[in-house]
Amino acid sequence: MGETKYIFVTGGVASSLGKGIIASSIGKLLQARGYKVTIQKFDPYINIDPGTLNPYEHGECYVTVDGHEADLDLGHYERFLGIQTTKANNITTGRIYKSVIDKERRGDYLGKTIQVIPHITDEIKRNVKLLGNKYKFDFVITEIGGTVGDIESLPYLESIRQLKWELGRDALCVHLTYVPYLTAAGELKTKPTQHSVKELQSAGIQPDILVLRTEHELSSNVRKKVALFCNVDENAVVQSIDAPTIYEVPILMQAQKLDETILKKMGLPVGDTPGLGPWRAFLERRHKAENTEPLHIALVGKYDLQDAYKSIREALSQAGTYNDRKVSVDFVNSEKLTEENVAEALKGMAGVLIGPGFGERGVAGKFVAIKYARTHDIPTFGICLGMQCIAIEFARNVLGYTDADSREMNEKTPHNVIDIMEEQKSITNMGGTMRLGAYECILQKGSKAYEAYGTEHIQERHRHRYEFNNQYKTEYEAAGMKCVGINPESDLVEIVEIPKLKWFVGTQFHPEYSSTVLNPHPLFVAFIKASIESFEEKAKK
Hints:
The chain is of the alpha/beta class. It contains 18 helices and 24 strands. The longest helix is centred in the N-terminal third of the chain and has 20 residues.
């Protein structure tokens, strides 16, 4: 195709309008036309990465295969496009400034005064073009976090202005805004969009395409008005109306010829419209599944916020679709769980997922939920800290080590069944040891995990600082909890399960990170299948 084309996705009026979904949808449509596409997220906050951010502040921390702690939008990119992102796909202001300051300290700028323009903007531009230059992508889509008008977004907007000027038709700006509906007046209001575009224009950027988020259908008159007032072609004003699922958005965008408009504006041949067969088949299956009786899965964790477990929720939902069943993810706050109320809290639940997390808060409630699920044979899936809690609960209530704990929770406990990992086996992060990114794992044939994957050798992503203490492995196995997934290099226990129960599996890794729309994660699919079978079996009794 020649030179890499760059698409910038900016947002105005309000945050959380779904820039990541629009960027992913554009990527999906271009990918379906045979183009090689990647998406990156530029976040204006000063943290080096979201690894130290409270999930209440920023939702979940997503982990890439190369061990980078990233923004949750990278999860959307991977789920929609079926691609793997890396550290280069997520840049923060902190990383930009750190890079510039490091260069200044080394003397790379030869004594120049370091300024936002050109030094910071040059570093942003270098990062924008890095993936295109290195891997020769046809399209690099760059999503700018935050909202136009924010002080911290200004260096990014200035960089986009320069790139649009330098690259001509090879760069394009898609601006996402919100069109509110005033119930009292019975009207949709375009003024916020006009102001947002004005703000963008004042930074020297004329948007090429406008995507209008709305809860009500926009008439052609409203679109004409927006086009006229914002200097945008009429056919380049697209509406993004609320959809039953985010996975409908690429279809809605294609129906309005968003991909065609992009190709025309960038001087590329339009060609035939892709059928998106597998994607439409998934949506059709999902639509049918949504009309079934909901299967209730308890998500036991401490963050009562949808985005804190975004990838897990999506993986459960996808697994539901591939089992032709609607999954209702019911959050159960582990901080409020006790022996007295657990039966009520888990009543009607077909399966229990013990969520990941860091720190001691809410762990006691996880032990309560695990014990109840184990003794009542409810299909259970523990992820990361969830798996470690499964190991501790088993040690306390089956092996008889009532003081069993992890070194993090209690340094003095003689039975640290979960131990701090050895320094030399892990990478350093935030001043501590952390296993991050993809690691190998060998599965035991005949295990539930092996049945799910259908293969012996797998690779999964990690984000943890503690690990199963191998000193106790023989005792666990003798008592009925098997270590069925092992890292070949370090002997790290990756997966534990109790074979005599219907489905009771804990994974040290995060399988949710690699579940995509067209390739749901096998463990989630197996967990939902077991939950359906178990629930129906109990219902017959």
